[in-house]
Amino acid sequence: MSFNIIPGQHKTKKILQDSIKNQRISHAYLFTGNNGLGKLEMAREFARAILCNKNVVNACGECLSCKKIEHYNHPDFKITEVLKDHKRILIDQIREMQKEISYKPYESDYKIYIINQAAKMTIQAQNSLLKTLEEPPKYAIIILINESKNELIPTIVSRCQEVKLYNQSKYVIQDYLKRNYNLSPKQALLYATIARGKYKKAVNLSSEEDFMNNREMIIKFITNIEKKNNLAIYNFSEKLVELSDTDFPLYELMLSLLRDILVMKRDVKNNIINFDYKELITNTVDKFDIYKIYELTGMVNKYNDYSDKNIKKELLFPSLLFKIRSSNNI
Ligand SMILES: [Zn+2]
């Protein structure tokens, strides 16, 4: 185990490793980036590298310190997060952390505290933490983790060094899945593409039976949409609304399907993402002309933006499906 457990993110890893090598470790960090990129894993590996008894910029994974962090029983390392059955990180949790941090490290030169999903801290908790960030003990390293910095109070953000994680290319994720999860290159590329750069999402998708079932339902419906009457479209829309409230990657799947139709239109020998539905997709190729597919792709992208803004999906999905049906040449 080392930074290698997180696929890609070379720039981010280099920044962290250089800071250890050059002994320029900050007292406070804020790790940002989309969920599913491995922010917590990155923070943990950073802590392991700092506290490792053997290696400098990469945890050895074998020394006592590395083992203790792995098993969450290192006295100088702690993760604070939302407690079970709670919705927020409470001020009492921060106070407890502050009390601990006031004691010198037990086994190393540093004490490292991670606060996961930092924006879940109540405002009182954030204000309390601010005091520690203003005057941290010289051995303290506090790592906040959050999707975006905008959800935290600005005075906290200004005290932290931001470390960004980025969405990775599908090939980086594909390679990671192949190496670690025993998937074929085609399977790995499917999950990597649908997960759009987030390896943890890709790993989850590869183990969810629901994902495969719902995907089958959607691909079969859309590739046969010319046979569906209005009632069928409304019923199907309802299912999509339900799915869109889960973490099912609906838009990503639709985009991959449109992309596959486009790719097959150019050359049927091309590799497609949804390789296990090649026959259905091949049969669809003549039903749409290229410009219609571009138009539909734009529409799906636009709807993806809309759905972030809480515009009623009950209205969006039927209109998208009717548009797909009317784009059909048959
Ligand atoms: Zn070690």
Describe the structure in your own words.
The protein has 2 domains: 3-164, 3-Layer(aba) Sandwich (Rossmann fold), CATH 3.40.50; 208-327, Zinc Finger, Delta Prime, domain 3, CATH 1.20.272. A 5-stranded parallel beta sheet has the order 2-3-4-1-5, sandwiched between helices. It has 330 residues and is α/β, with parallel strands linked by helices. The model has no long low-confidence stretch (mean pLDDT 93). Helices cover 54% and strands 7% of the residues. Helix 5 links the parallel strand 3 and strand 4. The structure holds zinc ion.
Listed once per kind, the bound small molecules are:
zinc ion
> CATH topology of the largest domain, anyone?
Rossmann fold
Continuous helix count? 15
Q: How is the main sheet built?
A: 5 strands, parallel
Query: How many extended strands?
Result: 5
**Helix content range:** 40-55%
List the domain count as a whole number: 2
- CATH architectural grouping of the largest domain: 3-Layer(aba) Sandwich
SSE string: HEHHEHEHEHEHHHHHHHHH
CATH class of the largest domain: Alpha Beta
Amino-to-carboxy terminus distance: 55 Å
Tell the overall outline: elongated
Quaternary organisation: single chain
**Strands of the biggest beta sheet: in what spatial order?**
2-3-4-1-5
Q: Flag low-confidence runs.
A: none
**β-sheet strand percentage:** 5-15%
Radius of gyration: 24 Å
